[in-house]
């Protein structure tokens, strides 16, 4: 079922065990913190979605899917145009899936089945005939999909309550002055609560933000400046070291995948 960005839709009011929606959001959108009684697969064909949980920040880049189990509070934020699909499952339909949010690699088969389900009517019966077979393939692809490391654990220590994650996190020295704790103390907090040093955590934030900005069409020079790199070449070197590819090559791959998703 197609929705526009102004349509109000209550997921929990739909009585069917499997159903989907398709939408094209053209501007900023914030779902607010919420949860469903059903599990969700959120798939972006174009554009990025940021998903915030209590202790984790997840980035959903183009042609990836987020598995969001039932009853998990989450907040989805969109800062630029996004073409997305959501498919919902009653809790007894995919019982063997993880109990936490996961970002999944989307195969061509999974993409095709999600499209079919998302664009079908809400009343579609997926329990018989060809529809049942399509759903079985979709669920099998979801179970087998590789997980993509686009998650950033968030520290919960009260001393870091002022740490702003919407913008580039401060340097370690600046953070030390900001919260009045030593660099050793900050390091212990981040290692304990995120499994990373502060510098590693900050670099992961920069990488996730770089992917988001690339998907939104920002130029490399703009990204390098926004993320605090001394030059374009410094940003390119960082990105290639982190991902194994250059920003331009990564962007070409996104455009290729988005084009194939439109076919």
UniProtKB/TrEMBL annotation:
One of its GO terms (molecular function) is DNA-binding transcription factor activity. Signal peptide: none annotated. Keywords: Activator, DNA-binding, Transcription, Transcription regulation. InterPro entries: AraC-bd, Homeodomain-like_sf, HTH_AraC, HTH_AraC-typ_CS, RmlC_Cupin_sf, Tscrpt_reg_AraC-type_HTH. Residues 171-253 form the HTH araC/xylS-type domain. It comes from the Bacteria. PROSITE patterns: HTH_ARAC_FAMILY_1 (PS00041), HTH_ARAC_FAMILY_2 (PS01124). PANTHER family: HTH-TYPE TRANSCRIPTIONAL REGULATOR NIMR (PTHR11019), TRANSCRIPTIONAL REGULATOR-RELATED (PTHR11019:SF159). This is AraC family transcriptional regulator. It comes from Pseudovibrio exalbescens. The lineage of its organism: Bacteria, Pseudomonadati, Pseudomonadota, Alphaproteobacteria, Hyphomicrobiales.
């Amino acid at each position: 079922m197609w929705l526009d960005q102004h349509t109000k839709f209550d997921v929990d009011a739909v009585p069917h065990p499997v159903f989907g929606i398709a939408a094209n959001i053209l501007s900023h959108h914030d779902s607010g913190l919420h949860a469903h009684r059903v599990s969700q697969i959120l798939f972006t064909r174009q554009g990025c979605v940021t998903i915030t949980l209590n202790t984790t920040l997840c980035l959903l880049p183009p042609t990836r899917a987020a598995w969001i189990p039932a009853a998990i509070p989450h907040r989805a934020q969109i800062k630029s145009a996004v073409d997305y699909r959501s498919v919902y499952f009653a809790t007894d339909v995919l019982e063997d899936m993880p109990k936490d949010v996961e970002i999944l690699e989307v195969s061509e088969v999974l993409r095709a089945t999600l499209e079919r389900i998302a664009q079908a009517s809400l009343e579609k019966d997926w329990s018989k005939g060809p529809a049942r077979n399509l759903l079985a393939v979709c669920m099998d692809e979801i179970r087998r999909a590789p997980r993509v490391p686009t998650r950033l654990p968030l520290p919960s220590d009260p001393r870091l309550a002022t740490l702003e994650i919407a913008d580039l996190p401060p340097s370690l020295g600046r953070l030390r002055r900001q919260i009045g704790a030593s660099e050793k103390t900050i390091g212990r907090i981040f290692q304990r609560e995120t499994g990373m040093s502060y510098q590693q955590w900050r670099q992961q934030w920069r990488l996730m933000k770089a992917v988001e900005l690339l998907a939104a069409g920002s130029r490399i020079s703009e990204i390098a400046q926004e993320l605090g790199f001394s030059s374009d070449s410094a940003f390119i070197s960082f990105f290639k070291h982190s991902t194994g590819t250059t920003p331009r090559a990564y962007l070409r791959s996104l455009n290729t995948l988005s084009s194939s998703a439109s076919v």
